[in-house]
From TrEMBL:
PANTHER family: TRANSCRIPTIONAL REGULATOR, MARR (PTHR42756), TRANSCRIPTIONAL REPRESSOR OF EMRAB OPERON (PTHR42756:SF1)
UniProt region (Disordered), positions on chain: 160-183
Record protein name field: MarR family transcriptional regulator
Keyword field: DNA-binding, Transcription, Transcription regulation
Keyword Transcription: yes
HTH marR-type domain location: 23-158
Ranges of compositional bias, category Basic and acidic residues: 161-183
Origin species: Streptomyces roseoverticillatus
Gene3D superfamilies xrefs: Winged helix-like DNA-binding domain superfamily/Winged helix DNA-binding domain (1.10.10.10)
């Protein structure tokens, strides 16, 4: 079954037969999927009074060891929230009573962000809906196809330095490849 991307590729094959546009087959579909997935996840988060970054902070705190607290730096490393957004995000979550900030017992210069009871209740309510949305989005794939896709996407992400966060640092695999297999 042909999709929009197939049509684009066919048009380029006619207009620029000299150009290998095959990367568009992957990147075009990833881009289209990203927009569709983001819209569906946004609906789920909105139903719980959250956005994706707030959900991510609460989920990161919830999956951390009790008492479900981390420093802002640990939150950045463990979540998908960028350093520029963390303070603003924490301010909003704290104003809503979903997290609290207190001085670190081990380092007076640092603070610890903790999940409050209300924050825990909210993430425990939102998480099953989030997972159900993701499952619905992947329903067209078999378990084997999902596993294969996850592995391929993980390989691509690692090759682009995605495993080292937002800083664009190269993955260990990328460094090994550059040095002929030695890290």
């Amino acid at each position: 079954m042909a999709d929009h991307v197939d049509q684009v590729l066919a048009q380029w094959a006619v207009r620029r037969p000299d150009l290998d546009v095959s990367p568009m087959a992957v990147i075009g579909r990833l881009s289209r999927l990203s927009r569709l997935v983001d819209a569906e996840l946004r609906r789920t988060f909105t139903a719980h009074g959250l956005d994706s970054a707030s959900f991510d902070v609460l989920a990161t705190l919830r999956r951390s060891d009790p008492p479900h607290s981390l420093t802002p730096a640990e939150l950045m490393r463990s979540s998908m929230v960028t350093s520029g957004a963390i303070t603003q995000r924490l301010d909003r979550l704290e104003a809503r009573g979903l997290v609290s900030r207190s001085p670190s017992a081990s380092d007076g210069r640092s603070v610890v962000v903790a999940l409050t009871g209300a924050g825990r209740d909210l993430i425990d309510e939102a998480l099953p809906d989030h997972v159900a949305t993701e499952a619905r989005l992947l329903a067209a794939l078999t378990e084997g196809e999902r596993d294969a896709l996850a592995k391929v996407l993980g390989t691509l992400l690692e090759s682009l330095g995605g495993e080292k966060g937002e800083k664009g640092e190269k993955s260990e695999k990328s460094r090994k490849d550059e040095k002929g297999g030695k890290a």
